[in-house]
Write a structure and sequence with these properties.
An 8-stranded parallel barrel has the order 1-2-3-4-5-6-7-8, surrounded by 5 helices. It starts with 5 loop residues before the first strand and ends with a helix. The chain has 16 helices and 8 strands. The model has no long low-confidence stretch (mean pLDDT 96). By secondary structure, the chain is α/β, with parallel strands linked by helices. Helix 1 packs across helix 3. The protein is 52% helix and 11% strand. It is globular and about 60 Å long.
């Protein structure tokens, strides 16, 4: 099973936006002439928090494809899995993001730092292949959720070790220098990111030739939801070297659901406010699991009394990722990003609202994926 040159991970916390997400990719192809393979991704942690099963992600993807008469390939990604939870994804997934970040050492030689992680990746890959059949899924190896970036030299070693483990990896997610916070833009030295990204593309090219890895091997970028300032860099370089790319957008859809809900009607706005106020009161609980990938300035968060006075447009502008808007508040956006647990607890209100206001919500989701993400990559 071989994935296409360009692919786009469309995470969806509540499995209600598959049609709107797929519409965005279809529309992007019409606008920019670039075909992205849709990959619906959802991690074990997200399933546990929301109370869903991997089979529901498959159902969402299949239903969206059927509804739109989509004829091209698509995938369902068991996102950030490990040996402890992979089995529940076997039947419903055909893309597996094998996360071995916990096995990477912080010190020592390259062998000491990375070989245990790659051997674990091999163990997990062989387990999936035994259960599912080696030709029935796409493999990604992920090591992006760590403290330190891997250098191009280390990536070369990692790819050599992957080849020796006989893992037919098609996408690789390294850690880059800089901060990839959830829901907001990349923070870091753009020149340094460009240098690392270009060198990694060249390392992959050499690794394919020297180590016999799959010819379509490509970088996967998915640490954090929004990468607006680095999209033009990535787009220019993958075109320069004629390389593919896999993009994951994590919680972007959940954030756009929240904005659409606020814009839909007074009842929707009240529910969006309720989620924020509850999240504010449980901030430590919600933010600690994401501590390495968010930077919330508590002093920048509006009080419940202030938010209660907002109209729909004020809420949406505060939340929407538009850095030119003086109302945009990245701390507010990041807190909402990690607060989908609150929406899950309010599912008796939240899920019917998604159905009731699907048109308004869908407009936000489709425009966000196409205009803010893909357009920046291929404009």
């Amino acid at each position: 099973m071989t994935i296409g040159k360009y692919s786009f991970g469309i995470g969806d916390r509540f499995a209600h936006e598959g049609v709107n997400q797929l519409k965005a990719l279809i529309k992007a192809e019409e606008q920019f002439g670039v075909h992205f393979v849709p990959v619906w991704n959802k991690s074990n942690r997200e399933h546990q928090i929301v109370g869903t099963e991997p089979s529901e992600t498959r159902q969402e993807a299949d239903a969206a494809v059927k509804a739109l008469g989509y004829k091209d390939q698509y995938f369902v990604d068991a996102d950030h899995i490990n040996m402890n939870n992979v089995d529940k994804f076997i039947d419903s997934s055909d893309f597996f993001t094998i996360d071995v970040a916990d096995y990477i050492g912080k010190t020592g030689t390259m062998e000491e730092k990375f070989l245990p992680a790659i051997k674990e990746a091999g163990r997990i890959y062989r387990h999936i292949a035994e259960k599912k059949g080696a030709d029935n899924f796409v493999t990604e190896v992920s090591m992006d959720e760590v403290d330190y970036a891997q250098s191009p030299e280390e990536l070369r070693f990692i790819l050599k070790a992957i080849a020796e483990e006989k893992i037919p990896v098609q996408t690789i997610a390294p850690k880059f220098t800089g901060r990839f916070n959830k829901g907001v833009d990349y923070r870091g030295d753009l020149a340094q990111f460009e240098k690392e990204f270009e060198q990694d593309l060249l390392v992959i090219d050499e690794a394919v030739k020297e180590y016999g890895l799959p010819a379509n091997l490509k970088l996967s970028i998915h640490s954090g939801s929004d990468k607006f300032s680095i999209y033009p860099i990535m787009g220019r370089l993958i075109r320069k070297y004629d390389k593919g790319i896999h993009i994951k957008t994590a919680g972007t859809t959940w954030l756009e659901e929240n904005i659409g809900l606020a814009l839909a009607a007074p009842e929707g706005l009240a529910l969006a406010k309720k989620i924020y106020v509850n999240a504010l009161g449980r901030m430590d609980e919600l933010t600690v699991p994401y501590a390495t990938v968010i930077d919330v300035d508590v002093k920048a968060l509006p009080s419940p009394e202030e938010v209660e006075k907002w109209d729909a447009e004020t809420y949406a502008r505060t939340m929407r990722h538009n850095q030119e808007d003086p109302l945009y508040n990245p701390s507010f956006r990041q807190l909402i990003h990690v607060s989908y647990k609150i929406a899950a607890e309010l599912s008796d209100e939240y899920l019917p609202a998604l159905e009731k206001y699907t048109d308004v919500i869908g407009e936000q989701i489709t425009a966000n994926i196409g205009e803010r993400h893909i357009k920046r990559l291929f404009k």
